[in-house]
Amino acid sequence: MQEEYNNIPEDPQADGDDFQPGNPGKQKADKWNIFQGHLAIELILLIGLAVLYVLFFTSKKNADPGVSAALSKSSGKSVRVVFVNIDSLNNQYTFVKKLKTDLEATGKRFETEILSEQAAFEKEATAFQKQVAANAIPEDKAKIQYEALMQRQQALVEKKDRYTQQVAEKEQAMHVTLLDTVTNFLKRYNRNYKFDYILGLASAGQILLASDTLDITKDVVKELNKEYQEKGK
Q1: What's the rounded Cα separation, in Å, for the pair 49 and 197?
Q2: Separation CA 81–CA 4 (nearest Å)
Q3: Is the dihedral angle over the CA atoms 126, 131, 132, 133 positive or is it negative?
Q4: How far apart are CA 175 and CA 145, in angstroms?
Q5: Do the beta carbons of residue 190 and residue 67 sit within 8 Å?
Q6: Coil, strand or helix: which one is 130?
Q7: 3-48 pLDDT, tens digit each
Q8: Domain carrying residue 142
Q9: What does the radius of gyration of the chain's CA atoms come to, in whole angstroms?
Q10: 204 and 47 Cβ atoms separated by less than 8 Å
Q11: DSSP label at residue 200
Q12: pLDDT digit string (tens) for 130-189?
């Protein structure tokens, strides 16, 4: 029975056979990093679209000189194509920065709560194991405490999984919001230029090479940030 009690996992994710008595700080060193995979909010959905949108609009009023130059470069072609650099958009669009900050704050809050509860669990588990090893606790009482610790372990695992899912869902919702914001902006933006295609260019994307003369990123970012600032006023 004493051997059974000594197999309380200090890491709520570990199996009993993997537990090594006398190493209560093992998982503190790992810090779990339970939300690392969910703390990057970027326009990855845009990258997956080789052609972001086929936009047919009329009017070319108030065209920006730089964008007009890009248009004139392709005016001899049957299809007018420009691109937005997604990596630059991620780094320079204020709304993206806000979404990243909000998501990271949520993940950090959840992680802090989990780590605090984990530390408390480890402390109680270690104290219990010492009592059992010293025969300082009756067997019936040891059994009750052991079962209570096992329940806490399971509850902690379930909370960690629930928080991880919540962060993932929040990230997905942010992706949808961001994609909707950018695509709707590009529809309005293209009323001035009548581009046939606006592509999303990224370092890990499907477009391998594009002429700089077709790059409208700078103007798009400027206008996106302008709209975002005006909405915040």
Answers
A1: 12
A2: 69
A3: positive
A4: 45
A5: no
A6: helix
A7: 556 555 555 554 444 333 334 344 443 444 444 444 444 444 333 3
A8: 2-40+101-164
A9: 27
A10: yes
A11: E
A12: 999 999 999 999 999 999 999 999 999 999 999 999 999 999 999 999 999 999 999 999
Alpha helices in the chain (DSSP H): 2-5, 26-30, 44-47, 65-73, 86-92, 94-133, 139-189, 217-232
41 CA to centre of own chain: 5
Residue 44, phi-psi category: left (phi > 0), alpha (psi -120 to 50), beta (remainder):
alpha
Question: For residue 53, what are the β-bridge partners?
Answer: 198
Both tokens of 35, joined, read 């939300």
Looking at 134-198, list the stretches that DSSP marks H as alpha helix, in order from N- to C-terminal side.
139-189
Q: How far is CA 31 from the centre of its chain?
A: 18
Does 144 lie in the same domain as 65?
no
Per DSSP, the three-state class of 207 is: coil
CA 217, 200, 225 angle in degrees (round to 5)?
40
Instruction: Identify the DSSP state of 205.
Output: S
> Which single residue is written with the structure tokens 């999984």?
161
Let me know: does 121 contact 9? Beta carbons within 8 Å: no
Residues 105 and 143 occupy one common structural domain = yes
Is 170 a member of any domain? no
Per the structure, how many domains does the chain have? 2
- Write phi, then psi, for 198 (nearest 5 degrees): -120, 110
CA gap 221, 200 in Å, rounded: 13
